[in-house]
Amino acid sequence: MGGCFSKPKPVELKIEVVLPEKERGKEELSASGKGSPLAYQGNGTARHFHAEERLPTPQPYPSPQDCVEATVCHVKDLENGQMREVELGWGKVLLVKDNGEFHALGHKCPHYGAPLVKGVLSRGRVRCPWHGACFNISTGDLEDFPGLDSLHKFQVKIEKEKVTVRASKQALQLQRRTKVMAKCISPSAGHSSGTNVLIVGAGAAGLVCAETLRQEGFSDRIVLCTLDRHLPYDRAKLSKSLDAQPEQLALRPKEFFRAYGIEMLTEAQVVTVDVRNKKAVFKDGFKLEYSKLLLAPGSSPKTLTCKGRDVENVFTIRTPEDANHVLRLARGRNAVVVGAGFLGMEVAAYLTEKAHSVSVVELEETPFRRFLGERVGRALMKMFENNHVKFYMQTEVLELRAQEGKLQEVVLKSSKVLRADVCVVGIGAVPATGFLRQSGISLDSRGFIPVNKMMQTNIPGVFAAGDAVTFPLAWRNNRKVNIPHWQMAHAQGRVAAQNMLAQEAEINTVPYLWTAMFGKSLRYAGYGEGFDDVIIQGDLEELKFVAFYTKGDEVIAVASMNYDPIVSKVAEVLASGRAIRKREVELFMLHSKYVCSAFPVDCSEPLLPPAQLSNPPTLPKSTPLLGTRL
Questions:
Q1: What percentage of the chain carries pLDDT values higher than 70?
Q2: Please, which residues bridge with residue 285 across strands?
Q3: Which of 32, 130, 193, 304 is the most buried (most CB within 10 A)?
Q4: Residue 628 lies in a domain
Q5: Is the same domain home to 166 and 204?
Q6: Are 447 and 441 in contact, with CB atoms under 8 Å apart?
């Protein structure tokens, strides 16, 4: 385990006043989502922060000289439900008119910088067109994930039917706001064996849980432990950008953890949990007591079981070091990827311009078949083939052959022999919950941790979140599911924190994921397992399409490429609790002069103008769809 608690030292804690975000003088992450120069440089050890590590000095309230004010439009220039980007000189603002009121917010999503003006406005919030994050238009607060930060909210005044916006110059440039948080004032933090909240796992679920506790005013001790050598980072980026460095992937810089009293234990493995005595035992024998526990251990990648599985240069990508090593070995050489799921295909796409050859081995007929269906899978496969990726489908790896201990060939059950200098294995994962088997915390037959809507396990005070849990999916009739998505882990972490504080929150987010390959993004919302039909609008060959996945009479998921913001609109409909019926989509597709690009949630407009239909159906008022004319 890292050195944080190996030799305990008293830690002097001071009560500090946390000023509002608008007073803070330094941004912690850049708008691109990469770490600032202050980002943590991982050295493999965990430790308390030293006294000489200073926080940025808070700035006073902005003076009039630090603000900019401009008249941006007439009150009649925007209709209700419309959004517009307006320029203030020092930066742009998103102007929103909703229910007769104007709101001014940051114009870019803090997650990846998507233009929110192209997003979806509904139910008092705007949803990002790229990845589905939602922001309250009255406060700017982040209401649904992914991402960690909120939007700045700016002053709006109406005089003589003119709309004027006043904003801080600094806020216009930063385009993100970290919510005000409490700081640790608990004297127990000076003792190494006790804590109030212990979080096992420092991925998205664990970090969001810690942040939510502080945002909700929790000022006792929080300890966040991880097997990794780095502070929390964006693991989802690893397979998309194999050259990324830890500091570029960092979700928060080290100063953030010090500022808010979130203690980190890196390279720390919990081996048992004693729920009766509320104690976690680490691999090195160190014991840590807790009052509340979050289990977010994530998953462990499956590995090959074939002959030669222990040869060198065969990887499962779990860390930045793994990704960097694969890239070094693949440059100008032969790469084999086993598994045509998201990780494998992202790695293959990234390596096409770096490696001499890229081959993909997959047991199914087409990539993504179970997830996206045959037709979409084949379209994506063709995109890869056009980029010189070679596929070996409906076969498995029989043997890995080495020369001097290093990988040289991959032998397939089809008898094909592939030259290989490096092999990446992406054949799925299993929950990393082996350490809980004797704990009394319930595990299902596959090793997942069952939780209820409040992310509670069968043990009082013990919560679980992230890739290792099954939970009731509200809009699929509370079906127990496992959804290992980056966005879902964020949402579960927040719900767990809220219920540690007895807020009785329930998980109700709509699953949302994305991938990027060859500069093209695929977006997906919903839960499509068990779909029995796929309705496709657009051109699969041109990779400009939307696919609706249905089961019986109901749309249960949607995927798209180059069709924004359709996935965010469907997600917003599903989040409202309204159903989309298969018949609606089918009728809609019959009218080619309409593009499936808008799903109003106000339910005031029909799917198609009745005059367009020879025998207009009675459409459910729960989810009308709107066609937008070309």
A1: 82
A2: none
A3: 130
A4: no
A5: no
A6: no
- What are the tokens at 228? 């990794």
Which H or E run contains 209?
Answer: helix 204-215
pTM: 0.84
Residue ranges in 546-581 assigned as alpha helix (H): 566-575
Q: Residues 173-187: pLDDT tens digits?
A: 888 999 999 998 875
**CATH no. for residue 406?**
3.50.50.60
d(CA 416, CA 593): 48
**CA 70 → CA 77, 107, 165, distances in Å?**
16, 16, 6
- Considering only CA atoms, give the Rg of the chain: 25
Helix (H, G, I), strand (E, B) or coil at 487: helix
Q: 3-state SS of 409-436? A: EEEECCCCEEECCEEEECCCEEECCHHH
CA distances from residue 17 to 14, 181, 219 in whole angstroms, order as listed: 10, 10, 12
Identify the DSSP state of 32: T
Structure tokens at 610: 């009745």
Please give the C-alpha separations between residue 475 and each of 10, 472, 511, 623, in angstroms, as whole numbers.
49, 9, 10, 14
- Domains identified in the chain, total number: 4
Tokens 């330094």, residue located: 26
Single-letter residue type at 228: D
In a domain, 185, yes or no: no
The residues with which 293 forms a beta bridge, in sequence order, are 198, 462
Query: Please, which pLDDT band fits residue 560 given cuts at 50, 70 and 90?
Result: very high
71 and 173 together in one domain: yes
Name the β-bridge partners of 336. 359, 423
Measured distance between the N- and C-terminal CA atoms of the chain, rounded to whole angstroms: 60
**Alpha carbon 119 to chain centroid, angstroms:** 17
Residue (of 43, 37, 41) closest to 4 by Cα position:
43
Domain span at residue 569 reads: 519-593
Strands 397-403 and 389-393: unpaired
Q: Report yes or no on 510 lying in a domain.
A: no
